[in-house]
Specification:
255 residues; alpha/beta; TIM Barrel; seven-stranded parallel beta barrel; two-stranded antiparallel sheet; 9 helices; 40% helix
C-alpha cells in the first residue's frame, strides 16, 4: 500500500508570500514548484528547490498560463505552438534550478486554469503532453485521475501518475467543483481526511453526490494556498500511515 502526497509550492513572488512551504515540505513527498508564469520568481524557485532537496522531496515543475495577476486561474486562449513553447520554457527553468542545486526534475504538473482546461479538452491536453515529452520523455506527467490530460500523457508515451485532490470536491464528471460554488474547497481537517479515505477505500473518485468513479490513484494533492494546509497535510499523512499506507516519492510510486 503505497501512495504519494504532493503539494503545489514556491508560489510566493518578490515581497509577497504565499503558503508555508518549509512546513509542508516536512510532510509531503513531492513538490510541484511554480515556474514564474502564475507565481514564483527565480529566487523563490531556487530556494524552494533547495529546501525540497534538503527534505528529500521529489521535484516537479508547475507550469501555467502567463497570468501573474490572476494567479493562473483565468482561462486563456493560446495557439498550440505558443502554449507548447511556454510549457517547455517553464519546465526548462525549473530543471535548471534543480540542476544548479544538484537535483533532478522528476515530474510536471500543470497549474490552475491550464490544468482544468486540459482535463476536458483533448487537443489542449495533447499540447501539454507533447511539450513535456519534447523536453524529456522520462518525466512523469502528474495529471488528475480520469482526465483527458491523463489520457494524453499515455498517448504521448509518458509515465502518468493519476492524482486526486484532498481539499477539493468533485462533480459527477470527475472534474473539480468550481471554486465559486459552495463546498468546492474543503477546509475542515477531519472532513478532508475523511474525503481522501473514502476515495482510497472505494477505489475511485467520490463526487459530492456520492457517485463513485473507479480509477487508479497514485498521488494525493494538498494545495499549499488552502487555509490550514499544513495541519491538513499532517493529519492526512498521520492517518494514512496509521492505516498502513507508505508515503513515497513520485518516481517510486510509478516506477
Amino acid at each position: 500500500m503505497k501512495i504519494n502526497l504532493n503539494a503545489d509550492l514556491g508560489e510566493s513572488f518578490g515581497a509577497w508570500k504565499m503558503g508555508e512551504d518549509e512546513a509542508l515540505l516536512q510532510v509531503v513527498r513531492s513538490a510541484n514548484i511554480a515556474c514564474g508564469f502564475h507565481a514564483g520568481d527565480p529566487l523563490v524557485m531556487r530556494n524552494t528547490v533547495r529546501t525540497a532537496l534538503a527534505a528529500g522531496v521529489s521535484l516537479g515543475a508547475h507550469p501555467a498560463y502567463p497570468d501573474l495577476q490572476g494567479f493562473g486561474r483565468r482561462p486563456l486562449k493560446m495557439a498550440p505552438a505558443e502554449l507548447e513553447a511556454a510549457v517547455i520554457y517553464q519546465v526548462g527553468a525549473l530543471a535548471g534550478m534543480a540542476a544548479a542545486e544538484g537535483g533532478r526534475l522528476t515530474h510536471v504538473k500543470p497549474h490552475g486554469a491550464l490544468n482544468n482546461q486540459a482535463c476536458e479538452d483533448a487537443a489542449l491536453a495533447d499540447t501539454v503532453a507533447r511539450a513535456v515529452r519534447a523536453f524529456d520523455r522520462e518525466l512523469i506527467l502528474l495529471a488528475p485521475a480520469l482526465s483527458e490530460l491523463c489520457a494524453a500523457g499515455e498517448r504521448a508515451g509518458l509515465r502518468v501518475a493519476a492524482e486526486i485532490f484532498a481539499d477539493r470536491a468533485y462533480t459527477d464528471a470527475a472534474t473539480l467543483v468550481p471554486r465559486n460554488q459552495p463546498g468546492a474547497v474543503i477546509h475542515d481537517h477531519d472532513e478532508l481526511v475523511a474525503h481522501v479515505l473514502r476515495m482510497l477505500e472505494a477505489g475511485g473518485i467520490v463526487a459530492q453526490s456520492g457517485k463513485l468513479m473507479k480509477t487508479a490513484m497514485h498521488s494525493i494533492c494538498v494545495h499549499g494556498d488552502t487555509l490550514g494546509a499544513v495541519e491538513s497535510a499532517r493529519q492526512l499523512a498521520e492517518t494514512l500511515k496509521a492505516k498502513g499506507w507508505d508515503l513515497v516519492d513520485l518516481p517510486e510510486m510509478v516506477g
